[in-house]
Amino acid sequence: MSALAETAAGPLLAVEDLSVRFDTDDGSVHAVDRLSFELGAGEVLAVVGESGCGKSVSFMSLLRLLPETAVVTGRAQFGGTDLLAAPLSRLRRIRGREIAFVFQEPMTSLNPSFTIGNQVGEVLRRHLGLSRAEARRRTIELLDLVRIPAPERRVREYPHQLSGGMRQRVMIAMALACDPKILIADEPTTALDVTIQAGILDLMRDIRERLGTSIVLITHNLGVVADLADRVIVMYAGRKAEEAPVHDLFARPQHPYTIGLLGAVPRPGAGAQRLREIPGRVPSLAELPAACAFAPRCPRADDLTRSQVPELREVAPGHRVACFHPGPEADA
Amino acid sequence: MSAVEATLEVVDLVKHFPVRGVGARQVVHAVDGVSFSIAPGELLGLVGESGSGKSTVANCVLRLLEPTSGSLKLKGREIAHLSRREMRPLRRELHMVFQDPYSSLDPRMSCGQIVAEPLAVQRLLPRREIDRKVDELFDQVGLRAELRHRYPHELSGGQRQRVGLARALSVSPTLLVADEPVSALDVSVQASILNLLRDLQEELGFSCLFITHDLATVEYLCDRVAVMYLGKIVELAATAELFAAPKHPYTQALLSAAAVPDPEVQRSRTRVVLEGDIPSPIDPPSGCRFRTRCPLEPRSAPASHETEPPLLDVGGGHHVACHLVAAGEAPTVADTAAAAS
């Protein structure tokens, strides 16, 4: 929460009008459409949405990790640098060192033929120029930081000797190797069992508190969001549908899609209370309409919704929603 | 429940897999003595984390695998060691829905053919009537009739899972085995499939073995729940009872670890984080299999190291396999978590 004071000094990362388009043989696919957001120092920002909503692509585009078929426009200010315009040499110094990524699949993100020590050490030697011995020592410290038991022994082991939860801890250790300002975690717990997931969430909370790292949590799991996030962005079909502080979003969702999403998951304790269904399907991004993308599935849709793209408007401090008819469910 | 003949009765089911290519002869103890029954029209949830053996149980029940030992009775008939040929007529009693609607439907068949196939194989209806039945099934699972002529790749995940469900229900099975049927789907689509499954069950009255790792789904859908850990059932009870008063330390940990989609609730809960990982099923711990990760192990030792706790009825059909519970204690792992922090 010490983050709040620093946020006043200006955001750590400010993204404005980010659009990502893929030109394919079958025409253009609009993966992200004019996305703007800010990330404060020490803040945990959750980006929520279903597959294909553009949540992962947005953040990969910021570090220019997308293939060349991607056309990325917009601005992304990070400490005086526009990530989208900076030369690649500058970007290489930011990737991994100042902004680090943790991916979903701990099973496939590690190279099976190198030891854990080798792989974490490589990051340290390459980015920070540490010697072999220094890198080994720092690796053990990092494994200890992410609470891997017996790190002196683990550095000599290969990925297959570690469980999924332990591998994800190694990935987080690698991401933290250079003490980054921002950690982008893309579905960090999705491939893990619930009892292991809880440990990873505790670890990320701990990292934020001890190191002050800002965390972007990309996920579809609302339970994970409720656990860790300070602020939430809900994305739908490449656009931001709603953005709010976490308590506000869960207590007073305004966008019918957010309301639908919150009602669609069975809740512990709710028993057999019928789940809310969102009719229809997530639209194809190739045919993204010049209208509200959620309109075909929305109970509040009308002529206005079907003919114009709703702009974001503020309904409460920090709570923005892109809907012509926002409001709690009773209005529906 | 004993008055009515159970749809499925599983007694002491064991499935071991030999490990190849290792010097010493080793076996994976995937399922190690599991017993439960499913009454007509009952939905039983089988919950566990990866490696607990829940899918192996499903595959044995479906007789996609032959059990190493134990008994499987489908409507009173022993099926544990029937041959493929002997199983064939029973296939109409027993059908399945798989996790991945992308790989479980034949890409070279139209959706109509996929749904019609079990009817044709079982010769349940003349050809002309099959057509009508398929229309009826499409309607029942909420698919437009014109999708009959489409191929699986043209459908969304939710639609494909509906095709899988229509196929499974085509032969009016007595028992439906559903192995993680919604975990590959988007959240907004999961709800509609779960609602559909519940509606169809009420309408058609089949029994269901529902395999999942997600406790909230079980609470939503099932009448009773069995919790598995490392090849054993550790707790089995009516859903409301299990969620209100979980007795086994593992069940308690599992319930406390599941993240609740409500920040007020989630952030005020005491969470029990289990130490270590699930042990290897090649060499499971002696005595109680959960003892290596159990926060209450100091209290249950040495009994938990020496003997395996039997699954005992502690009243009202609530079964627990724990030495502490058997000794009349009411173990709560939340206390140890609070004390430790």
Give the arrangement of secondary structure elements.
The complex is a heterodimer of chains A (332) and B (341).
Chain A: H1 3-7, E1 13-24, E2 27-39, E3 44-48, H2 55-62, E4 70-78, E5 81-82, H3 88-94, E6 99-102, H4 116-128, H5 132-145, H6 151-154, H7 164-176, E7 182-186, H8 194-211, E8 214-219, H9 222-228, E9 231-236, E10 239-245, H10 246-251, H11 256-264, H12 303-307, E11 313-316, E12 319-321
Parallel strand pairs in A: 3-8, 3-9, 6-7, 7-8
Antiparallel strand pairs in A: 1-2, 1-4, 4-5, 9-10, 10-12, 11-12
Chain B: E1 8-19, E2 26-38, E3 43-47, H1 54-61, E4 69-74, E5 77-78, H2 84-87, E6 94-97, H3 111-121, H4 127-140, H5 157-169, E7 175-179, H6 187-204, E8 207-212, H7 215-221, E9 224-229, E10 232-238, H8 239-244, H9 249-257, H10 263-268, H11 297-300, H12 303-306, E11 312-313, E12 319-320, H13 323-326, H14 333-340
Parallel strand pairs in B: 3-8, 3-9, 6-7, 7-8
Antiparallel strand pairs in B: 1-2, 1-4, 4-5, 9-10, 10-12, 11-12
Helix pairs in contact in B: 3-4, 3-5, 4-5, 5-6
Folded structure, characterized:
The complex is a heterodimer of chains A (332) and B (341). Chain A has 332 residues and is α/β, with parallel strands linked by helices. Chain A is 33% helix and 23% strand. Chain A is built from 12 helices and 12 strands. Chain A has helices at 3-7, 55-62, 88-94, 116-128, 132-145, 151-154, 164-176, 194-211, 222-228, 246-251, 256-264, 303-307; strands at residues 13-24, 27-39, 44-48, 70-78, 81-82, 99-102, 182-186, 214-219, 231-236, 239-245, 313-316, 319-321. In chain A, the strands form 2 sheets. An 8-stranded mixed beta sheet of chain A has the order 6-7-8-3-9-10-12-11, sandwiched between helices. In chain A, α4 packs parallel to α7. The relative contact order of chain A is 0.13. Chain B has 341 residues and is α/β, with parallel strands linked by helices. Helix content of chain B is 34%, strand content 21%. Chain B contains 14 helices and 12 strands. Chain B has an 8-stranded mixed beta sheet, with helices on both faces. In chain B, strands 2-1-4-5 form a 4-stranded antiparallel beta sheet. In chain B, α3 crosses α4 (127-140). The longest helix of chain B is centred in the middle third of the chain and has 18 residues, at 187-204. Chain B starts with 7 loop residues before the first strand and ends with a helix.
